[in-house]
Amino acid sequence: MFEFLSERARDILQCTFGVSVSSVEWVYADREGFGDCSTSIALQIAKKLNLKPTEIAKKLAEQLRGLPGVERIEVAGVGYVNIWLTPEALLTELRITEKACVPEPVRKKEGPVIIDYSQPNIAKPLGVHHILSTVIGQCLCNLHRHLGYTVVGWNYIGDWGTQFGKLAMAWEKWGKSKPVERYTLDELLELYVRFHAEVEKNPALEDEARAAFLKLEQGDRHLRLFWEGVRSVTKTSLATIYERLHVHFDTDIGESFYEDKMQPILEEGKKKHVFVKGEGGALVVLFEEEEKLPPFLVQKADGATLYATRDLAQIRYRVDTFHPQAILYVVDVAQQLYFQQLFAAVKRLDWKLPQLEHVVFGRMRFAEKSMSTRKGTVLKLEHVLDEAVERAKEVIAEHRDSIQTDDEGALEEMMGTGALVYGILSQNRRMDLIFDWRKVLALEGNSAPYLQYTHARARSVLRKANTKVDALPKDAKAFTASERVLVGVLLGFPEVLQEACAHRMPHILANYLYRLCQAFNAFYNVEPILKASEPLRSLRLSLTSLVATVLKTGAELLTLRVPERM
User: How many CB atoms lie within 10 A of CB 12?
Assistant: First the structure.
């Protein structure tokens, strides 16, 4: 219907005013009194035509009246055209929303989208800051898959470097009494911290650590077994937290994989005069003055490689192995300059590249000072998740009269982790995030518990109906004001999915789900559903069922879970 209206509006503008526009955008109305859709095209072209927007809008409205599916049309404000559709037309459009809840067929002819996210370091527990990349990245994977893209979710693990020499030395000196496989991540971290404390007394330990890592690079069997044990302990520990967050990767190939793939890249770069000698004999990429980028180091003066060298190698490997259409790096704002340099450098190598994109996110801080990271320690993500569940438990106890559940422990976990994740994803990722426990656990407002409670309310209505709720009816006599607002919000779901995915902005979806919760609760509070007479009862039950489906679909795309009863 909206494509039809757009085409007709373009034809009218061409014939009446002689102006050609590429498209006429119709916006779904989600407030009472603005019709079911509206366009501001008259305001956009008024200056070009040297006419008042209202004159253009009136002409457009006159010629759109009487079209199939149009019930009423009016010009509002300074030149908006608002259209009310017939109930039959609205129901037809709602079937598109129904369809949007089902994953699209896989786009077999397109290359995959590689999404690089989470990126923990081996031998260290996840800090709370890791949750940003982890849940933003997983949400983007979910959105792309839902829209038919082939996705490779990639946990690019930091599993190489001098830190392993340091850890190996610490274990050799102070921890060898226990096999490394029996260590916890916390114990490994304690060994690492102890090494740095001992270095202050004995700086020679640094040289021993570098020598140990060199032996690891050269394939020393003893150190290789130690390294594999550390990797195993880390991955087992991380898997528990990822499972709590509903995060799953397709691969976790880390830095170590590229050790034998860097030298060919360095040789190619030198041959193409992309990598040139810098200060002290290091290899660097020098950029043009207008690019305003500092030199990019790809090999140290002593011949050692670094993170950038491995990143160049992994781009080459990903391109050759997966032939992706895009590679998205979900990494915080502190690395913005680095990715500008990396992308500019790799383009100079003249490879056939996919779209390379740094999906930037800001920093997170807690509104409560008590939750700030203590000096010299890491605020562990596991502890924050546990605190979220404890706080959810308190909320459930406070609202015992209105919250019901068959599995209190499951609901506490669902609410707590959901509140933490939604509190992040509902904010614009480009901005610094302020996390407030009070807001994210509120049963009203833009929060996971409000979304979860609304879904449970809709499911409760459907259970009480004690009848099979069929698909949307083919026709209806009329829609009330609250029904129209609810329908208007539901109609926006397919477009929201596309927009959130295309712009890599999970908060677009989160904020849409909040509006849907508001619209459904307003509808629920003023319209009888179960006590309505037929065919109104069936229509309202169908709308309720669609709301529950959209909320569940949207929540799971955000990595949340919603309860059937609450």
Answer: 18
